[in-house]
Amino acid sequence: MSHPIVRFAPSPTGAIHIGNARTALLNFLFSKKHHGEFILRFDDTDVERSKEEYAQAIEVDLAWLGVIPDVVLRQSQRFALYDEAAERLRASGRLYPCYESAEELDRKRKRQQARGLPPVYDRAALTLTLEERKRLEAEGRRPHWRFKLDHKIIRWDDLVRGESHIDSASLSDPVLIREDGSYLYTLPSVVDDIDQTVTLIIRGEDHVTNTAVQIQLFEALAGEGSAPDFAHHNLLSSVSGEGLSKRSGALSIGGLRDAGVESLAVAAAAVLIGSSTALHPIGSLNELLPALDLKQISRTQTRFDPAELVALSARTLHGLSFESVRERLAAHDIAGYKAQPFWLAVRGNLSTFLDVIDWWRVVEGEIEPMSAPDLDPDFLREAAASLPEEPFDETSWAQWIKVLKERTGRKGRALFHPLRLALTGQENGPELAVLLPLIGKIKASARLSGRVA
Ligand code: GLU
Q1: Cα separations (Å) of 422 from 120, 311, 381, 438, 450?
Q2: How remote is the CA of residue 323 from the centroid of ligand 1, in Å?
Q3: Ligand 1: residue whose CA is nearest its atom 5
Q4: Annotated motif 'HIGH' region: location in the chain (predicted)?
Q5: CB of 185 closer than 6 A to ligand 1?
């Protein structure tokens, strides 16, 4: 597929979660892999529930994930296009006014169910005469507008699910415009997809049932065969099997970011979970491109376990190059000639990125002396006196340890543990051989002598 035009079309009614990120990334990466275009479209025709601050937060979350759109659209600014399309559908008899109230429709459905019939709208409004309509409107009723479906089988070759079909006769004619004149999602979505010449719609499988209606709308507005391709990916659920929701805030991208989860780990998890490629750490989004194959996406709902993500995030950090984190380190004043060797020394010990702050304090700042039973002052004094001359390099540690072994007879934990405690104030951490040159002789010596340094 060359130069596809794809879109991610969230309604800005809440914060996006890992499941939405999955849709966004599949679209974005697909456009990158095939040199296409990625549109971010805010489906904000529902003015009650849509909020500009949600739209902005979604852009921030996407940017954090590395998802940068080529084009950003807001449906709330495009009503003229939808009005024009609605007018054309009315003129061709495909959009018809209906006056039933919600209660009347409900009663109809109950009657159908009682008779064992599917609850499909009976098209009663199609038979209304002009007089009847006038009378209803005189009563103060306003119409909602339904799209008249062609009762035929709609087929499409879904890029994830394969050959798919829906019998339109089993569907109610969908309402496109509410009584108050506002648009439901369907018409604006198709109008924009036509206007933007979208060639492939990648979205969650909760939209499979909308596809027959939308294909018919594409054909009604832009002609036979005008519908784009569709790819409906499986959905993610929580560990307990519930669906994720924008409103509940569960597994929101912002929440994961605030918890210190690496964006590349979120992206890898969002794309790889529920595909045939095992979850693995990545150093850039581009590394996901080879694994990106719509055909390999599983067709069943996949449980998303945050514990797996936290572990992946740590593994991601352990492999990040200095270049890729240079700016983030600088934002915490971790810069200068030590920054690179520092990063390479500590990255393998990080659970979250902000752990660097504590380790930077160990090499550049001050730590309180430790008091632990096995911190024998005589041994530490001997250790301080045995420190080799500066400049320290990667061999300094081995020289020092050799001398200390000879002078004290200590080895193993009895030798190393007090040195680690005194030099770093921590029970565990990066190799002392790489930390020692970063800490330097003055600090090492002071800390071994029990001074704040
Ligand atoms: N606004 C719709 C949603 O958030 C877009 C669906 C689509 O991609 O067509 O689910």
Answers
A1: 76, 30, 11, 15, 8
A2: 37
A3: 9
A4: 10-20
A5: yes
Class in CATH terms, 377-448: mainly alpha
Phi, psi dihedrals of residue 142, rounded to the nearest 5°: -110, 145
Average of per-residue pLDDT across 258-268:
97
Centre of ligand 1 to C-alpha 33, Å, is 22
Give residue 248's pLDDT: 67
How far, in Å, from the CA of 11 to the mean position of ligand 1? 7
User: Is domain 1-73+186-319 classified as CATH 3.50.50.60?
Assistant: no
At 265-323, the pLDDT tens digits run 999 999 999 888 999 999 999 999 999 999 999 898 999 999 999 999 999 999 999 99
CA 226/CA 321 separation, integer angstroms? 46
Asked if 81-177 and 377-448 have one fold, the answer is no
Sequence-separated (6 or more) residues with CB below 8 Å from residue 302: 234, 235, 236, 237, 273, 274
Nearest CA to ligand 1 atom 4: 10
| pTM (two decimals) | 0.93
CB 9 less than 6 A from any atom of ligand 1: yes
Q: Is 43 near ligand 1, meaning CB less than 6 Å away?
A: yes
Domain boundaries defined on the chain: 1-73+186-319, 81-177, 322-364, 377-448
Q: How confident is the model at residue 370 (pLDDT cuts 50, 70, 90)?
A: confident
- CA nearest to 94, candidates 45, 56, 147: 147
What are 285's two structure tokens? 């989004």
pLDDT band at 249 (very low <50, low <70, confident <90, very high): low
How large is the C-alpha radius of gyration of the chain? 31
Ligand 1 center to 232 CA (angstroms): 11
Under CATH, which number does the domain 81-177 receive?
Answer: 3.90.800.10
